[in-house]
Amino acid sequence: MSDLHAINEAINKKAGRKLLPSIAVGLSLIALVWFALSYERVIFAGVVATAIILGAREITRAFAARGITVSFNGLLLASVALSYAAWNGGSGGLAVATAVAMPLLLIRALLQGPEGFVAKATATVFSLLYLPFLAGFLILLGRPENGFQQVMTFMVLVGCNDTFGYIVGVLFGKHPLVPKISPKKTWEGLIGSIIFTVIGGSLAFYYVMDMQWWLGIVVGLMIVFTATCGDLIESAMKRDLSLKDMGTLLPGHGGMLDRLDSVVLSAPAMWLALELVRDFL
User: Fold this and answer.
1) How far is it, in rounded angstroms, from Cα 180 to Cα 176?
2) Contact at 8 Å (CB) between 232 and 185?
3) What are phi and psi of 216, to 5 degrees?
């Protein structure tokens, strides 16, 4: 037992997070999404909206720590509105809701006076687009009749990227990918993400989506790029804001934003890829 404990501690130290709690939380989130999509797909929209709201709470607190005010109540209402619009109105509804919410949030920031307005306005628009707008595409993936297949395939792709990039990076990582932004992310981990995401994507597209397997390879490569960039963007945010994690909600992961980082950029890419496949193939 002591040897296993020592191995686990070594992995935790190299990876920068606790392995077993991270696995438990990841499996729990997958089970929650599976239940929501299997039982009633509209519940899935509620789950995503809840995650967005929790993320909004974290990002407003992160900006507040640097003296930048972003209205959580305003962002909360916008998150609910965009999630509702995405589920009921599709991509058009999401776009219109975003176009309406943005000026309203900026007007609210304006009412607080001109001092620091540029910083407040920039942070407000970033928060709106980064969370409820981009994450709204996850709701769009779950909206059609084959929403279960689309979301589960998406989870396979993102899961393979994150999980195997993490494992390969811990076991074999020696060459930092972008040390100034994320010192623990390595080229070896990226190669692991590419290999296993391509494999997982080809299998998921063929057996789950009932599409040609090579589409899974193409989309898998795209998801590796977007998920990795999403992770790096959130890491850059934390470094700029002098934070280790965006929160402590999820053991082994940090905050909700630490779990959504690779999702928010990948969901629009996945949605667009599937739309192009339907239109041209």
Assistant:
1) 9
2) yes
3) -65, -35
Environment class of 114 (CB within 10 Å of its CB; exposed 0-12, middle 13-18, buried 19+): exposed
What are 74's two structure tokens? 């305003």
Greatest Cα-to-Cα distance within the chain, rounded to the nearest angstrom: 61
What per-residue string of b and e applies to 256-271 under the rule 16 or more CB within 10 Å gives b? bbbbbbbbbbbbbbbb
Burial grade of 174 (CB within 10 A; 0-12, 13-18, 19 or more) = exposed
Residue with tokens 């709204």: 136
Mean pLDDT computed over every residue of the chain: 89
| Full-model pTM | 0.89
Distance in angstroms (rounded) separating the CA atoms of residues 12 and 90: 41
Where would I find the H helices in the chain? 2-15, 19-39, 41-65, 72-110, 117-128, 134-142, 147-172, 187-207, 213-240, 256-280
Sign of CA dihedral 178, 180, 181, 185: positive
pLDDT tens string 130-148? 999 999 999 999 999 999 9
- Please give the C-alpha separations between residue 229 and each of 47, 193, 226, 236, in angstroms, as whole numbers: 24, 13, 5, 10
